[in-house]
Amino acid sequence: MISALTVNSPHAAAAVQTAPVDQVAELVRPIRDELEDRWLEETDRLDAICRYALLPAGKLFRPALLVESALAVGGVLEQVLPAAVGTEYGHTASLVHDDIIDGDAMRRGRPSAYHKFGTDNAIVAADALIFHLFSCLAECRGKGVSAERVVTALEIASASGIALCKGQSLEAEITENSIRDVATYLRMIDGKTAALFRCSCQCGAVLGGGSDEQVDALGRYGTHLGLAFQIIDDLFAFTGDTETIGKQTTSDIRNRRLTLPILLAYQSGDAQDVRELDMVFEGGLVPEKALAMVSDVLVSTGALTAARKMAWEHATSAQDALATLPATAHRDRLHWFAGHAVERVS
Predict the structure, then answer these.
(1) Cis? peptide before 56, omega within 30° of 0
(2) If DSSP codes are grouped into helix, strand and coil, which group holds residue 110?
(3) H or E segment to which residue 113 belongs
(4) Where do the DSSP E strands lie in 167-284?
(5) 265 pLDDT band (50/70/90 cuts)?
(6) Distance (Å, rounded) from C-alpha 30 to C-alpha 81?
(7) What are the CB-based long-range contacts (under 8 Å, 24+) for 304-307?
């Protein structure tokens, strides 16, 4: 189905530069098909909730990273496809939990899982999706991947899940204690976001038969890509709209999230800027008014531009990490992914 993607030739490398969106769409198609095939039937209420959270699928960015990482080290699509689907399970589970924690009623432009089915049911469904992730990784053994490599992938996924939970906990601590330190913020998103990107790339490399050096390189790539991705996500509340991003733009302000642009505005703003930010993050303002106030401060202080610059620095570091991989169309697409993470609008 994606034979054109597995031809490691100069022509394939050139094609990804001229039509990367088409190439990625072709890459994602078998992942999307596999995901939909697995959820054709709803045998019970739990399945119905899981299916609702998963489908229709989003961009499938993390599963695509797993597949490209595997193919970049010489792996075979059919052997890692279950793991790619599993990665989407883990990501979706984290989104369901995030919506509950943040009280967000919308996800991907429709009612979030907890808003539609209730908090208790959504928690159980997200937990089930995490176990589905581990089951999918184990499936790769039956596809021809060695047991040793499957166990290594399971270890990577477990470490990623723990890091994600620590990142979520740190985010709550940052909010509760009004911690305005950029280094702490970066440590938080390294766990909450970058960990799953790192997991996708490293699992792909391991299951695809990559060397230790390649697994390490793709881990560094995934880390920097994840950091860039989250920094840009933090900007959408101030640069996007609810329809485009699929969730309420007031979510971070309503939950008093000290995201990177806010932290940078605190650092570079004058006394009046700081007073206005304090007024917002002390709570009590109508979210829409608070968002407008903060947006004005972010523009006047240059915080949005500074945050985007940091995102590009991480994206460039991600691209640099790919230098040790063989020169293939797969490496080129991973390189493109890093730039796209910063240039995207949703």
Answers:
(1) yes
(2) strand
(3) helix 113-117
(4) none
(5) very high
(6) 8
(7) 304/235, 304/238, 304/239, 304/261, 306/261, 306/264, 306/268, 307/231, 307/234, 307/235, 307/260, 307/261, 307/264
- Examine the pLDDT at 244 and tell me if it is beyond 80: no
Res 280: pLDDT: 92
The band of 7, judged by pLDDT with boundaries at 50, 70 and 90, is very low
Angle between helices 195-207 and 61-72 (to 10 degrees): 40
pLDDT of 204-226, one tens digit each?
A: 999 999 999 999 999 999 999 99
pLDDT tens, position by position, 66-118: 999 999 999 999 999 999 999 999 999 999 999 999 999 999 989 999 999 99
Measured in Å, how far apart are the chain's first and last C-alpha atoms? 28
Q: Nearest CA to 69 among 344, 340, 333, 312? A: 333
Do 294 and 238 contact (CB within 8 A), yes or no?
yes
Are the C-beta atoms of residues 229 and 267 closer than 8 Å to each other? Answer: no
DSSP, res 36: H
325-339 CB burial, b ≥16 within 10 A, e <16: beebbbbbbbbbbbb
Torsion of CA 277, 283, 286, 287, to 10 degrees: 70
Supply 272's token pair.
């009046």
Tokens 């159980």 label which residue? Answer: 124
Report DSSP letters for 275-343, one per residue. HHHHHHHTS-S-HHHHHHHHHHHHHHHTHHHHHHHHHHHHHHHHHHHGGGS--SHHHHHHHHHHHHHHH
Euclidean distance between CA atoms 202 and 195, whole angstroms: 10
Q: Considering the entire predicted model, what is its pTM?
A: 0.91
* pLDDT score at 46: 97
**CB neighbourhood size of 223 (10 A):** 22
